Amino acid sequence: MKRINILYLLIIPLTFLWYKMKTDVTKDTAFFYGFAENKETELSHDEDVMVLKIHVVPGQAVKQGEPLMQVVQDEIDQKILQSENQMQQLQSKSREESTAITLKIEQLKVEKQSKLKAIDLKIDELKRKMDEQKNLLSNLKTLDQASSGSISSLEMELTTLEKQKEIEGAPIEAEIVRLKKSVKGNQGTLNQLKNRIIAEQDYLRKEQGKLNILAPSDGLIGNIPCKEGENIQAFKSLINFYEPRPTLVKGFIHESYILEIEQGDSIEVSSELHQDYTITGQVVGLGNRIVEIPERMRKNPTVKSYGREVLIGIPSKNPFLQKEKVFLNTQGPRKKPIESMKGLRFPETKLNQPVPERLVEIE
User: Most Cβ neighbours (<10 Å): which of 5, 216, 270, 281?
Assistant: First the structure.
């Protein structure tokens, strides 16, 4: 039985290992830190307002459309107050005019009644005289022509008084009818003015209601940089509003990494404390300058380091908290060859002269 050289058995795994190492040479993995950040919206007004009532507190979770703050505008309040005063004046004037017209009608009725009563008394007197003469003539056997003429003159006078009664009463009655119509006309005009004022008040109150701050969506209340009774200038922040979950991660990649990150690259985002919480985000923005990396985002907090800001968009459904520190990982082919530190040329320094900080403090 032939013996199999153990070297032959190792050829296949060694070949695979060599290929794997060769492939890894062309790849680089960048690990850096960042923090999750909720989208922040500053709620404000485009006009000066006064804070009347604050309904929420920082950190409170709210639903879309929930009232956050009640504010008022002095100009609208003044217009509403003016319209209310105008309504009161209009109603008072209407009552005065209506009372005056009613009083005038009553006076005319008394005047009409007085005039007609005086004529009625004359008519009654004439009728009484006529009855007496008729009774007297009926007892006489012969009709006296003079007495007959006297009755005729009384009848003519009676007719005249009856016509006078109609003439005296007609204009007064006409004036009473006119005044009653004017009352109805004034009431119609008053109703039109009332409706116009009410419509104006409704419009102003709706505009006042639009000033109230409502939650634009489900989210969290941040800072409230104002207090009740305070006058706030136009466009000044009233409430800082956050989305319920972070949708953005801000990271800082060290300047010594040669791996280029471009917009649209995929980034693996993991919770520092719970690394099983992992999602994939996408680069949505890159800083255009080198900045000092915040101490919390450094691998070594005691050493200052510099890098580039990277903004990564993440799905809204994620387990991260506001400002939670996360671990960022990207893997992809190098777009520039790795240069050895020996190949880098630093500026010459004299003895006892400190080396530039950014050249020695590389993580």
Answer: 281
Sequential DSSP letters for 18-48: HHHHHHHHTEEEEEEEEEEEPPEEEE--SS-
Write the pLDDT tens digit of every residue in 265-275: 888 999 888 77
**Cα 59 to Cα 57: distance, rounded to the nearest angstrom:** 6
Instruction: For residue 106, count other CB atoms closer than 10 A to its CB.
Output: 11
Rounded-to-integer distance, Cα 179 and Cα 36, Å: 79
Q: Do 42 and 240 contact (CB within 8 A), yes or no?
A: yes
Phi, psi of 315 (to 5 degrees): -60, 150
For residue 112, the one-letter residue type is: K
Domain ranges for the chain, please list them: 42-71+213-240, 75-210
Cα separation of 62 and 225, whole Å?
A: 18
- Bridge-based pairing state of the strands 231-232 and 49-54: antiparallel
Q: C-alpha 341: how far from its chain's center?
A: 60
Q: Residue 269 and residue 66: Cα distance in Å, rounded? A: 33
Q: How far apart are CA 275 and CA 296, in angstroms?
A: 18
Q: May I ask the CATH class of domain 42-71+213-240?
A: mainly beta
What is the phi/psi pair of residue 327, to 5°? -105, 125
Phi-psi sector, 101: left (phi>0), alpha (psi -120 to 50), beta: alpha
Q: Are 215 and 65 in contact (CB under 8 A)?
A: yes
Helix (H) or strand (E) holding 163: helix 145-210
| Residue recorded with tokens 């009409």 | 112
Q: Is 181 exposed, middle or buried (0-12, 13-18, 19+ CB in 10 A)?
A: exposed
